[in-house]
Specification:
seven-stranded antiparallel sheet, 537 residues, six-stranded mixed sheet, globular, alpha+beta
Length: 537
């Protein structure tokens, strides 16, 4: 049936199945350099959601990369170093390719740190999207390592890299591009000043470079260019980046340039949550202690290549043209406006009436964070009992967000009701720890289970977005195993989260974007649960 509906030409294609000859198909996929295959048990029915009847097989790629630096060890029990910074060679220049933090033994980490320590240098020996966060050390490139990875990001960084071995038989001069996509080179440079502020020069290949040339740029507007080419056209998107030396987080000396660098580094993880969603920006043109304002309506002077979507505003009585950020230049444009947090709705255009998730915001407002952790785990256990997947992230402040994927199967009102029912069960079971009372005085030191962020036009702090507080905290996706008494949301900042994601290699929250659970069965189980008297704290 699908083959009859799908057009023979165009962006939408029909892919037929191959029966029984899976190994032959796999060999052909590898020979052609394709990403992988999806396989299904022939005798299994088609059902929504994940199951053991389906397999997703990705082709593993390997390549050799120059070692250009390393990060400090992070996390309990980590020794030697946290990750290796990697680069590829394009002609006579080295281009930054990301970092690899998995696949090492403790012995290898110690040996690598000892070998690299004596070759340290003050600045990166490569160009590209170089991280400017704390804890990075740079070295003269003399080692080559073999790395296994899934793919390259649009910014020219390795996706899900794993260390394989050192290539003692290979010189840095022999390292090639290893399949890296051809993208314009951006450079960043740090210039020490008495106040330890950083300035950045972000330019296309052939623009301002590193060192003295960049320092001479003075107060000239910085630019980021991204060239997207098709078979019949080439479009260059230039984003002026201004006032990068302005201090945004004065307690920590972090500048607008640091914020821009963070959003550029985290963009491969952040952009999937922004795709198709009208954004609400909170702009802080003078930093976190200056005046701020919300912005939904995109200005008329915005670049014509940035996507917007018309959304009816009940308050204004008119359509608003809201930003939809789907690529790195668009993201850098809104960050350059002074945006610190980015808030998203739960649904995507064109079907803005069907949310992808519902959420419960665990807001302590003075309650112990240990209570927040316990309640999140109880909520997770409840969801598991009724057959609903659930995911968790920090809010970037003092609480946690628990998100339940809906897959666009219900309305905003139904999503709000589902979140309210889940919160009610938890509040009935643990009345001494949590409450549904909105008024702070009525909470009496208990955690507020807020479900009112569900609904048409309601927004949530986007995963990976920075928050306007000292230390520049981030709303960070978590694994459920991390919800212990040792969890400290203050650890997740613009300086630590890019390294964390490089180390994890995958986003634990990502399935919330695509899962379609069986809501009918889950609601039936929840109804049965509500009919049982509360068991008490």
């Amino acid at each position: 049936l699908l083959s009859r509906l799908a057009p023979r030409l165009g962006p939408l294609r029909f892919l037929d199945g191959v029966e029984e000859r899976g190994e032959d198909l796999w060999r052909e996929v590898n020979a052609r350099g394709l990403e992988g295959i999806v396989a299904k048990r022939a005798d299994a029915p088609y059902r929504a959601g994940r199951s053991g009847a389906w397999l997703k097989l990705r082709r593993q790629r390997t390549g050799d990369f120059a070692v250009v630096g390393y990060t400090a060890p992070g996390g309990k029990g980590r020794v030697g170093l946290g990750a290796l910074h990697l680069a590829v060679r394009d002609g006579g220049a080295l281009l930054y390719a990301g970092s690899v933090g998995s696949g090492f033994t403790d012995r290898q980490l110690k040996d690598l740190r000892a070998r690299l320590e004596s070759r340290r240098r003050p600045s990166p020996p490569c160009l590209g999207a170089i991280p400017s966060t704390r804890g990075n050390a740079w070295v003269e490139p003399f080692l080559v390592c073999e790395v296994q990875y899934h793919a390259w990001t649009a910014e020219g960084l390795l996706r899900q890299p794993v260390f394989v071995r050192l290539r003692e038989d290979k010189r840095v001069e022999e390292v090639g591009m290893e399949g890296r996509p051809a993208i314009p080179t951006s450079t960043s440079t740090s210039t020490s000043t008495p106040t330890s502020r950083r300035t950045y020069s972000l330019s296309p290949s052939g623009g301002e470079g590193r060192g003295e040339g960049a320092a001479r740029a003075g107060n000239r507007p910085n630019r980021f260019s991204n060239a997207n080419s098709t078979s019949d056209e080439r479009e260059t998107r230039t984003v002026p980046l201004t006032n990068l030396e302005k201090v945004y987080f004065p307690e920590d000396g972090l500048t607008k340039g640091d914020l821009v660098e963070y959003y550029r580094a985290i963009s491969p993880w952040l952009l999937p949550y922004l795709k198709g969603r009208p954004l609400t920006l909170t702009r802080f043109p003078d930093g976190i202690h200056g005046k701020s304002f919300f912005q939904k309506d995109a200005p008329a002077w915005r670049p014509d290549w940035i996507r917007t979507v018309s959304v009816w505003s009940e308050e204004g009585g008119r359509d608003l043209e809201q930003y939809v950020v789907e690529d790195l230049p668009s993201l850098l444009h809104v960050v350059n406006l002074g945006t610190i947090p980015i808030h998203v709705v739960a649904s995507r255009a064109p079907d803005l009436g069907r949310p992808d998730w519902c959420s419960v915001d665990l807001d302590p407002k003075g309650a112990p964070f240990a209570h927040v952790v316990r309640l999140a785990r109880v909520l997770h256990e409840l969801c598991e009992r009724i057959g609903l997947p659930a995911f968790v992230k920090t809010t970037g402040q003092a609480g946690l967000h628990v998100l339940v994927p809906l897959g666009g199967q219900c309305t905003h009102e139904q999503a709000r009701q589902l979140a309210g029912l889940l919160a009610r069960v938890v509040a009935d079971d643990l009345p001494d720890l949590c409450t549904l009372e909105r008024v702070i005085a009525a909470r009496r030191g208990r955690v507020y289970l807020d479900t009112l962020q569900n609904g048409a036009g309601k927004t949530l702090a986007a995963p990976f977005c920075a928050r306007p507080r000292p230390a520049a905290p981030v709303s960070a996706p978590l694994r459920w195993s991390e919800l212990t008494g040792r969890l400290d949301p203050r650890r997740f900042t613009i300086g630590t989260v890019p390294r964390r994601m490089a180390r994890l290699g995958e986003d634990p929250l990502a399935p919330v974007l695509d899962l379609k659970p069986d809501l009918v069965s889950a609601l039936a189980r929840l109804r049965d649960r509500l009919s049982v008297a509360p068991s008490g704290p």
